[in-house]
TrEMBL record, chains A, B:
<dbReference type="InterPro" id="IPR045010">
    <property type="entry name" value="MDR_fam"/>
</dbReference>
<dbReference type="InterPro" id="IPR013149">
    <property type="entry name" value="ADH-like_C"/>
</dbReference>
<dbReference type="Pfam" id="PF16884">
    <property type="entry name" value="ADH_N_2"/>
</dbReference>
<dbReference type="InterPro" id="IPR011032">
    <property type="entry name" value="GroES-like_sf"/>
</dbReference>
<dbReference type="GO" id="GO:0016628">
    <property type="term" value="F:oxidoreductase activity, acting on the CH-CH group of donors, NAD or NADP as acceptor"/>
</dbReference>
<dbReference type="InterPro" id="IPR020843">
    <property type="entry name" value="ER"/>
</dbReference>
<keyword id="KW-0560">Oxidoreductase</keyword>
<dbReference type="InterPro" id="IPR036291">
    <property type="entry name" value="NAD(P)-bd_dom_sf"/>
</dbReference>
<protein>
    <submittedName>
        <fullName>Alcohol dehydrogenase zinc-binding domain protein</fullName>
    </submittedName>
</protein>
<dbReference type="Pfam" id="PF00107">
    <property type="entry name" value="ADH_zinc_N"/>
</dbReference>
<dbReference type="InterPro" id="IPR041694">
    <property type="entry name" value="ADH_N_2"/>
</dbReference>
<feature type="domain" description="Enoyl reductase (ER)">
    <location>
        <begin position="20"/>
        <end position="330"/>
    </location>
</feature>
Amino acid sequence: MSDKNMQVLFANRPKGWVQESDFKIVESEIPQPKEGQVLVKNSYLSLDPYMRGRMSAGKSYAAPMEIGDVMVGGTVGVVVESKNEQFKPGDVVLGYFGWQKYGLSNGKGLLKVPADKIPLSAFLGVLGMPGITAWIGLNMIGEPKPGETVVVSAASGAVGSVVGQLAKAKGCRAVGIAGGKAKCDYVVNELGFDACVDYKAGNLDQDLKQAAPNGIDIDFENVGGEILDTVLTQLNAYARIPLCGFVSQYNVTEPYQLRNFGAFLASRVKLQGFIVGEHMNLWPQAQQELTQLYTSGKLKYRESVAEGLENAPKAFIGMLKGENFGKQLVKIADR
Amino acid sequence: MSDKNMQVLFANRPKGWVQESDFKIVESEIPQPKEGQVLVKNSYLSLDPYMRGRMSAGKSYAAPMEIGDVMVGGTVGVVVESKNEQFKPGDVVLGYFGWQKYGLSNGKGLLKVPADKIPLSAFLGVLGMPGITAWIGLNMIGEPKPGETVVVSAASGAVGSVVGQLAKAKGCRAVGIAGGKAKCDYVVNELGFDACVDYKAGNLDQDLKQAAPNGIDIDFENVGGEILDTVLTQLNAYARIPLCGFVSQYNVTEPYQLRNFGAFLASRVKLQGFIVGEHMNLWPQAQQELTQLYTSGKLKYRESVAEGLENAPKAFIGMLKGENFGKQLVKIADR
């Protein structure tokens, strides 16, 4: 192989918005597997909002990255060389190799996936971490019952789009919140939500009341900030809030100050923050149900694919600004 | 009987702090029981922070009171006349007659209590609604495990004092937050908490860190506002917050704006608002355990007793300002 490895390193801790200069792209030799190791050539890299959190020094659920680290991230790729009997060349594997073309693994945390009839990228989206995040948050914390109203912010995104479709499958009214008419149209017309509110239209409170006329029973929260503050005023008694992300807050230097916290008592709300990696016991069930829905054509999704690892920083910044449409991926190499 | 009935009516909806002029005291004839009814002479009235919420017009878990209503409230008293075969004169009963000397009931919601060896007032405190609130919030939502740290605000109050003692009984570190040295001394020396932080000393963050050096696993929240905001920064992963009250917020016209909401995700916190009356299925178990602890001398409490129903408004206002010390009661009549 005359190919080289390419890596995107974490070069500078951002304050506020991430800049391209916060990353550094380097080339190096392709590593060689030792006994027990596997060399994987990554096909796709998943870009996700949580990565912004890892770039901050503050307390969060995961330790912050250190300057010089390879940027973290989920990947799907193909085994090119194996000195581990559990894997053979050609196997398609889900891993967490980060922003790099080639990765070495001892096999731990590497998951073979059945990629015969399913496009590789789906394992980073509806059938992967984002889809499972939606499944776990909605079912484990939301506990949806038929006839209830489920609101989800960032509704056209990788997690939100699955939340709404799962809610519909449970017999709920699914209401999305998204930025712009194009995303809202997609959420309703293609994903099959009952309604979608464009928060950029500047009339969130009224529009949400119209979209959720019976009040809100579950708020799958991806965004935080002012959108959450508005949702809080429209909760029904015993509402549940799976708290999945705060994408509105990752790039601000001063945190949003929540006004309507009183709703948690007034409506006896249950809220729970969660991260998908801490509920591995639920993954098999989630993956099975999602694959079933997907195979029967009931789980739709859209992808934004950036071509080439060198374009990952730009794509990541765009995603944080909401410029992507659907699951954001980087195509690193052909299968 | 030449006695008269006395009632305290809700006369004016307060904005901000409650005034004595928000109440009106009236006298009337003692009502006569009809077939199936019971006439009760109340001995004690319980004063509780939730009553402030009922005086507001805003959305809350219970409908607001209307001007002219008898102020709501839990009472313990003695049956003086009965045309209901389930009760006889002399029975001691817990009821919800509100701020009045005499009350009529059809028996529904009236509970006979074993007052032979237990002072009547205890049924409004450690063995009544406040004690049961502590038990349900701590056990149902907090789920304390031995060795964990439990923080409770308003720690010398009717609910908080029981929370800490139950936490100790479960093998937890119990840390109170209260206003002033006298209350803190009481919480530690008499109630047996491990530590108590005086929030009025102006050094809450540091003092709380010292009192809870291993971080906070359960925050039994009675107060809200800035105290909660500080507690949020010291939560451990998977912390639980039984949300019981917002006593800091009842008398403000502008709600406190919470800065540290991000902690709910960063620490994967579970928070649940609850009101005790909606978990009646748990009352028997709670009452049994509380009575057991009480009888064995392990459940200490203190009362502030205002003498005479005409002094209830003043005592209520004082309680909202934190002037009481322990469970606030009004003695209406001798048994």
